[in-house]
Amino acid sequence: MVLFTGFVLATAAVTDALCARIPNALIGAALFGMIPLALIEEGIAGVGRSILLSLFILSILICLYLIGAMRAGDCKLLTVCCGFSMTLITAFRFIFMAFVIGALEGLIVISYRVIATRKGKDEYAWSVKGKVKLPKKRTGIRFAIPIFISYFIFLTTGGV
């Protein structure tokens, strides 16, 4: 299950970086691929636990989606990965680590945009009468990449 989850996260990170979205087909394939794996590894009780944990995590993450803190694909990706490969405490640690890495990514992006604006590059912002105006296009962070990095850290450190 660990390799399958890693493959799903790597595919989602590449797709999110290139297309700025995580396809529902990938999330659906991951969900229906992890149910038989959970059944084989933990039995029917493990499948029930995984589904309940997934629903609990989704109910928390959907609140973040509703206030605009995350995109829907990121919520679904975190739900599938945490629900089927972790316990509740490990899932919260994993989500916290993904948020910290996402915040670091956001700081890097913002720093780059400020530097690009000061150097007169019009890629991300432009100046009108001395005031910086950001483009109307929504340019959020690609959250699948911090999720993938967090999963890689969890694999190498044994779950922090």
Provide tags for this entry:
single chain, 160 residues, mainly alpha, two-stranded antiparallel sheet, 5 helices
The radius of gyration computed from the alpha-carbon positions, rounded to a whole number of angstroms, is 18 Å
- What share of the residues lie within helices? over 70%
Query: H/E series, N to C?
Result: HHHHEEH
Structural class: mainly alpha
Q: Strand order of the main beta sheet, please? A: 1-2
Using DSSP, what is the number of strands? 2
Estimate the strand proportion: under 5%
Distance between the termini: 19 Å
Overall shape: it is elongated
List the topology elements.
Layout: H1 2-19, H2 24-66, H3 72-85, H4 88-118, E1 126-128, E2 131-133, H5 144-157
Description:
The protein has 160 residues and is mainly α. It has helices at 2-19, 24-66, 72-85, 88-118, 144-157, and strands spanning 126-128, 131-133. Strands 1-2 form a two-stranded antiparallel sheet. Helix 1 (2-19) packs across helix 2 (24-66) and helix 1 runs antiparallel to helix 5. The protein starts with a helix and ends with a helix.
Q: What would a concise description of this structure say?
A:
The protein has helices at 2-19, 24-66, 72-85, 88-118, 144-157, and strands at 126-128, 131-133.
